[in-house]
């Protein structure tokens, strides 16, 4: 899977993982939500399943479920800092439209679902 996670995002996720001693990895995924269809989610993975895709990025384990994998293909995850706010930003080439508030997105017909 071609997922790019910038060094800044890796540091941010690594710090979050250190604060949750029960988790062994970070889970990135996509769920149905909002007015456009999908929304990203980030969670802790205590025990990845056999179906999960595990990716090692500079010592950080990221797990992605099989439904989210094609929707995240080619995505770059970066850390955006504005003042005191830190947000993970997803630059996803599969996105064809986003809702006005930026919380959800739609993908093109070429993405296998």
Brief account:
The protein is an alpha/beta fold and 113 residues long. The chain has one domain (4-107): Hypothetical Protein Aq_1857, Chain: A.
Cα gyration radius (Å): 14 Å
Tell me the distance between the termini.
16 Å
* Shape call: globular
Strand order of the largest sheet: 3-2-5-4
If you consult CATH, what is the topology? Hypothetical Protein Aq_1857, Chain: A
- Report strand %: over 45%
Q: Give a count of the beta strands, DSSP E runs of length 2 or more.
A: 9
Which architecture would the CATH scheme give at its second level? Sandwich
Query: What count of structural domains?
Result: 1
Class, according to the CATH hierarchy? Mainly Beta
Order of helices and strands: EHEEEEHEEEE
Low-pLDDT windows of residues: none
CATH superfamily: HesB-like domain
Mean pLDDT score: 88
Determine the number of helices (DSSP H or I, runs of at least 4 residues).
2
Structure description:
With 113 residues, the protein is of the alpha/beta class. The chain has one domain: Sandwich (Hypothetical Protein Aq_1857, Chain: A), CATH 2.60.300.12. 15% of the residues lie in helices and 45% in strands. The strands form three sheets. Strands 3-2-5-4 form a four-stranded mixed beta sheet. It has a three-stranded mixed beta sheet with strand order 1-6-7. The longest helix has 13 residues, at 7-19. The two termini are 16 Å apart. The mean pLDDT is 88.
